[in-house]
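QA checklist item 7 of 12: single-chain prediction sanity check.
[x] sequence parsed
[x] length recorded as 119
[x] structure emitted
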Amino acid sequence: MPEAQVKMNVRGAGEKASIIDVQGELTAFAEGVLMDAYNQASDGQVRAIILNFEDLEYMNSSGIGLLVTLLIRINREKQQLLTYGLSDHYRSIFQITRLDDAIAIHDSEEEAVRAANSA
């Protein structure tokens, strides 16, 4: 079975937010890595998860599906999902799929953290 070509690093961003740095490919094979990162990021009083896509190399429809699955989990926990670092290509995919209606897209880490901690 093919392995995930993705790495995720979790770090804190203030009292209410965690950042997941996504490096590599977001495909069906990334599910375990993404959910592990979410579980790690979701400790304690975290109300917002921020996905950093600056080092995203590739995302396919299965990767979009994983984001929807993650969004459902986050909504169930009454948390918020934000992103930054999306290329123009992936920004347009978020718009086409209307993911941008459910996931706040920001231009920088600072902007995303500010939005997450003010919510």
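[x] summary fact logged: The radius of gyration is 13 Å.
[ ] second reviewer sign-off
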